[in-house]
Input
Amino acid sequence: MLDGVLTEKARKDWNRLAENYQAFRQESGTYNEIVEIPAMLSLIGNVKDKKVLDAGCGHGYYSLLLAKKGAIVTGIDISEKMVELAKKNAVKASVQCQFFVCDLQDLSMFNSDNFDLVTSSIVAGYLDDIRKAFLEVFRVLKLKGIFSFSENHPILKGQWERDRQDRRLHWNIDNYFNRSIGIAQWRARDGGIIETSSRHRTVQDYFDALVSVGFVVERLVEPEPINNGKLLNIRRYESAKRIPYFILFRARKSI
Output
């Protein structure tokens, strides 16, 4: 894809998907609920009285959650529809947050040294230039500020090997170093299919991009599902006990 095309496609795709995705995330037993969210909250830690930028806030899930924990939250998203939903959800929950349409690769609307924490959930794969985005995050963070983000684990560029009874044998990985565009299909409530596009990157790609802009990587987490996950969705729990579905980074602005 040409520069800028992936990000613009993400804007259009997520505008179409916004309401369907919110409905999906409200279901019980998603991989996010049993794996990603508990790991992210543990990585983020105490947010009371901290200024937080939720970069790629979607319908506002993390923004509202962190605000309820005492954070002063600003949420941004490339999708106008997602920002609209986030604002409505904040009003419905009686939670004070600010939301803006904004590209993570261009945070010029914010002053430098402004936030204590920047958090981002499953966003980097939809960006054309993660180094540019990480440089902007570095700029708007205060000294010793934290950048915590999650992404779909790069190992997911593969598929299950199955036996004749369709039982999962093992996970096959191939073309790991091919930084190609992958297509995900989402079923809309009307029965139609909505596609989103994201770029596969390796673990090293994320690490190198962070270090190259000045971050010190404090933690890299490949979370397992929470024990309660088996009660919420046993199939997804058992799958997430076999392969990592997410990877999380915690990086500090040290200079």
